[in-house]
Amino acid sequence: MLNDFGKIKEQEQHKDDLTLKDLNQYYGTENYYNVMGVKVTDGIAYIMKNGYSWFVTDFLSLVITKHESIKDEEFLSIKLKLDGTKGLMEITDGNEKILYTQNYKYTNAKTELNLYFTNEVLLLSGEYWKMSISKVYLKEFGYNNIEDYFNYICDSYINGNFKQVKELFNRLSQEQKKRFYAFIHYIDFTQKIYEVLKW
Question: CA–CA distance from 39 to each of 97, 103, 170 (Å)?
């Protein structure tokens, strides 16, 4: 169900927590909200309720107007960087390629943010990390942690199931892919699996 964020905001009266002390509690989402015609998660709703609506809506305005710098990107990383009372929105492709920046001469924000936009959903980076593998695929394969999943990819390669290797790898988030490359470097599996992934 897609909830109307505006109506929820009207129902809740509280003082904004600009430090976002509960930010780390958001590891996945139970609800989705409609903000400017775009789906956002519980975590995004939380930061919007606590004084960061301006940052979210500034980004979403780029999405709904199909801004030239980001319109063809499948994955976006959106960061709020702070320098005293000044702020910077920096949008990259997730691999540090800067696509768009916006400066704020003054902001009362107290916490830097890292959001992701993918599959037409805006979410916290922490929510993306948990939703991409931990919540669904680890349970599916009966593994307890991401390293077990990485080993499963390597085992698939050893067994000659190269198609499955690619499928399992493509399910990883951008950050998890970076961890996977570090993992195969550590176990000295690099050259073999690179051939399959064509990295």
Answer: 25, 25, 23
Residue 12 shares a structural domain with residue 90? yes
CA angle 28, 1, 60 (to 5 degrees): 65
Structural domain count of the chain: 2
- Phi/psi-derived region of residue 190, left when phi > 0, alpha when psi is between -120 and 50, beta in every other case: alpha
Residue 132, both tokens: 């991409």
Q: What is the rounded distance in angstroms from the CA atom of residue 62 to the CA atom of residue 196?
A: 37
Q: Note down the domain range covering 38.
A: 2-130
pTM: 0.64
- If asked whether residues 119 and 149 sit together in one domain, one would say no
Mean pLDDT over the full length of the chain: 83
